[in-house]
Amino acid sequence: MATVLDILVIDTHNTQTLGVADNSTYDAPASGATLSVTVPGFDPVLVPFTPDDFNVYNSISLGLSPVGLPLQPLPDGVYYLTYTIDPAETYYVNKTIMRVDLIQEKFDEAFMKLDMMQCDLSIRQQQKVELNSIYYFIQGSIAAANNCAIDTSNKLYIQADRMLNNFIRSGCGCSGNNYINNFI
User: Fold this and answer.
1) Which of 25, 29, 68, 95 matches a 20 to 30 Å C-alpha distance to 136?
2) In the chain, how long is the greatest CA-to-CA distance?
3) CA–CA separation, 70 vs 85, rounded Å?
4) Cβ atoms 64, 70 nearer than 8 A
5) What values do phi and psi take at 162, rounded to 5?
6) Please, is 183 exposed, middle or buried when counting C-beta atoms within 10 Å of its C-beta (0-12, 13-18, 19+)?
7) pLDDT of residue 163
8) What is the mean pLDDT for each group of 10 consecutive residues in the chain (184 residues)?
């Protein structure tokens, strides 16, 4: 059996942590395992990586906040990860992911504020249409990053964030016309 490196970024359901699991197969015990993580807007940082395990990183371990201070949410955006073992020239794997935990948290809060039991069907349907559109932009951003279309990923993320901010600012003040015009 040949060594084949693979890592999986696992959702920790926490804006303050990044979970990376080892999904590799090894022909011998791994030595010299390291993970390079490039957080959006920061330089790459080498962090310890335990093979055959689930590794969790936070703002302190990624060098984004000093030891002794409270953990900070990790920024959304495109993350670059490179997992290597000795010899690094032979054994490595690169992953690019779009982290969307902060915008997803904001989306969840907006969704939970919807009054699903309100009497005005048109308004409720309009809100659902708007949230579905935002959700598709978020998912499109993730898909684009997974396919190395970084510019597209960033544009879709920015559009989703803009739409979500407008949705939150407008509260319920929609007329339902979008739903009526497009779906009835």
Assistant:
1) 95
2) 65
3) 32
4) no
5) -60, -45
6) exposed
7) 96
8) 90 96 91 94 95 96 93 96 86 93 94 66 77 95 93 97 93 49 48
Residues 6 or more apart in contact with residue 1 via CB below 8 angstroms: 25, 27
pLDDT of residue 127: 85
- Residue 177: what pLDDT? 47
Of 42, 50, 164, 43, the C-alpha closest to 100 is 164
The pTM score is 0.83
Domain range for 134: 101-183
CA distance 174 to 172: 6
- Strand, coil or helix: what is 29? coil
3-state secondary structure of 43: coil
Choose among 80, 82, 73: nearest CA to 101: 73
Q: Tally the domains of the chain.
A: 2
Which amino acid type is present at position 150? I
Residue 62, in any domain of the structure:
yes
Say if 144 falls within a structural domain: yes
For residues 130 and 160, state if they share a domain: yes
In a domain, 2, yes or no: no
In three-state secondary structure terms, 184 is coil
